[in-house]
Amino acid sequence: KDVQKEREPHVYLSKEEVKEKIQSYNSSVTDKLKMTLNANGIYTGFIKVQMELCRPITVQSSQSQGTCAHSNNETAFYLPDGCVNTLHISSTNTVREVIEALLKKFFVADNPAKFALYKRCHKEDQVYTCKLSDREHPLYLRLVAGPRTEMLSFVLREHETGEVMWEAFSIPELQNFLRILDKEENEQLQILKKRYATYRDKLEEALGGVWKPG
Questions:
Q1: pLDDT bucket at 161, cuts 50 / 70 / 90
Q2: Rounded CA gap, 152 and 201, in Å?
């Protein structure tokens, strides 16, 4: 179960401390996604972001998978559960820049302001989830936590605003949502019709066996 956790204060590290942490980080990496320290003190590395989106996203491509609906050259579709993406970023990149880069990488046309990045930590059999502010630096958090994703992982979600703010969506997005809902409604209707047709056949078969003419 996720519980909210207070944000931990940002601890500024000296260049030597950063170098030591990167060496320790790289010695523990098992997937070859190591960090690199540049001469100017800026370091680069990789973060993995799990996509946990409840609403469909709009992409500028016709090559999309999953439940989708088309409008001109844009497609709205639901991302599959557990989708994880890897980004190569620097220590200067902020949360807002990471969200923008992630959406740009997959040609997502939705407004980046609709999304938020969360950090998820596992401690003492509890899962702590905290929304990151736009100015925080994900690669710094990754460096401090180490490479193990069970210690720290990143999650992209829609903003938790209670009811959906439909006025924040464009007309093409809303039209695509309606197409998806119509498609899902028709699919569910066909499933129900098939289910009741099967029940009817079995009932008629049973009645036929009971009421055979003597």
A1: low
A2: 54
